[in-house]
Design brief:
The complex is a heterodimer of chains A (about 325) and B (about 80). Chain A is mainly α. Chain A is built from nine helices and eight strands. Chain A has a three-stranded antiparallel beta sheet, with no helix packed on it. In chain A, strand 5 and strand 6 form a beta hairpin. The chains are: A mainly alpha (about 325), B mainly alpha (about 80).
């Protein structure tokens, strides 16, 4: 009954889509890509027409040498010292040739990476300080050590289970670091305000580097047994000897690729979904107040649900990355038993 | 018969690409959901049979679901690239 009344009110009150005022058409794709992509300025918030923006330093080595300047000089398509921001890709190109210079600017992603690393360092060092000052056998941890202890113990036990009793202690620091780092970056991506809100794990370069860390840890510290199973395994029949190395090497290369894509796609998809749901409010803004109000309520509720789901996915993806890394390390450290 | 198909394809080229990409993303999501539901079903039954080993089954569930979702998301990313590029 209430539902029927609500639907009839909506149908009566929704006019045809006519823009209320002279405003530019809403480009949802641009809004979404602006939020999930990298940028030379960090847009913190807008107050009406006034934009509060952090203009980050640009450090490039173009054909005329090194240039370090604030990205405010390149706002609104201006050019400075023969460099401008290309409108399509959003990256700095030289004005004359259109080629990319050697670009090591502090962009939004780089600054967020530095802030997250610093935050993680502070958290871990404070936790370690508690353990230095108190005897853990006599008192239970309090404060930040109580927050970190279940996480670190979980990863340490997972390392012991997957790598084996003998040499898991060598790899446990790496696994704990990668787990806490991915977890922290994922959570910072869900926060909508400064210093969070940057889509860091949704950037394939960052997840690729993390997967390459696992790849190098696995392959540079592999035991003789591991390399033997890769290339020349005396136990397999002779007619399989030509193709098994190919399959095994392909498998070893696919492991970091799958780690990369899994983390990257999960985080990117989550961010895009949340952004789409919030953009629904802005799309509905030109359909009249009733529809906007109703869809805003729906959008906010669904957005809260998606944010909660994102928290779960953040934890699960960090856990799966770490578990798979520990399994690969365990397989590489297998000894002839 | 084929002339009509060719003319339609030329006219609707971009839109057919978008329809194909969206359809394939749906199929990938459905396949991933179906696969993960199968392992979830088996995990629930196993935990009901042996509740004391529930935690190891839970971690196997999470790992298997993560790997299946990795494959699903390969397909989703390809569809997304087709839509955008």
């Amino acid at each position: 009954m209430m539902l029927a009344w609500l639907i009839s009110m909506l149908l009566l009150a929704a006019p045809s889509p006519a823009p209320q005022a002279e405003e530019e058409p809403l480009d949802i794709a641009e809004i979404i890509f602006e939020h999930i992509g990298d940028d030379y300025q960090w847009h913190i918030f807008s107050w009406g027409e006034k934009h509060v923006v952090l203009s980050l330093p640009v450090i490039v080595h173009s054909s005329t040498g090194w240039h370090v300047f604030s990205s405010r000089r390149l706002e609104h398509g201006e050019s400075w010292k023969g460099l401008k921001i290309d409108q399509e890709t959003g990256k700095i190109v030289e004005v004359d040739s259109g080629k990319r210079p050697f670009d090591i600017s502090i962009t939004k992603n780089v600054l967020s990476l530095m802030i997250s690393s610093l935050l993680l360092l502070v958290i871990i060092l404070c936790t370690a300080r508690w353990y230095r000052r108190h005897d853990v056998l006599k008192e239970t941890p309090t404060g930040i050590a109580a927050l970190m202890e279940p996480l670190v113990v979980m990863i340490h036990d997972m390392a012991r289970e997957n790598i084996g009793e003998k040499d898991f202690r060598r790899y446990s620091p790496y696994l704990c670091t990668v787990f806490l780092f991915i977890l922290l970056i994922n959570f910072m991506g869900i926060l909508p305000f400064f210093p969070g809100g940057v889509n860091l794990t949704g950037n394939i370069a960052i997840t690729l580097v993390l997967a390459l860390f696992t790849f190098f840890t696995v392959n540079l510290t592999g035991s003789k047994q591991y390399y033997q199973e890769l290339f020349y395994n005396p136990k397999i029949p002779v007619f399989l000897r030509p193709i098994m190395p190919v399959i095994e090497v392909f498998g070893a290369l696919m492991k970091p690729v799958s780690l990369t894509i899994r983390l990257f796609a999960n985080m990117l998809a989550g961010h895009i979904m949340i952004l789409c749901i919030v953009c629904v409010i802005f799309i509905m803004a030109k359909y009249g107040p009733v529809l906007t109000g109703t869809m805003s309520v729906v959008s906010v509720l669904f957005g809260i649900f998606l944010d909660a789901l994102e928290c779960l996915v953040a934890f699960v993806q960090a856990y799966v990355f770490t578990t798979l890394s520990s399994i690969y390390i365990g397989l590489a450290r297998a000894h002839e038993e | 018969m084929f002339l009509v198909t060719m003319i339609l394809e030329a006219a609707l080229g971009a839109i057919l690409g978008k329809i194909g990409a969206a359809l394939c993303a749906t199929i990938a999501a459905f396949a991933g959901g179906y696969a993960i539901s199968k392992i979830a079903k088996t995990t629930m039954e196993s935990i009901a049979r042996q509740p004391e080993s529930a935690s190891s089954m839970r971690s196997s569930l999470i790992i298997a679901a993560g790997m299946i979702e990795g494959a699903t998301l390969f397909a989703i990313i390809v569809c997304f690239l087709t839509l955008v590029l």
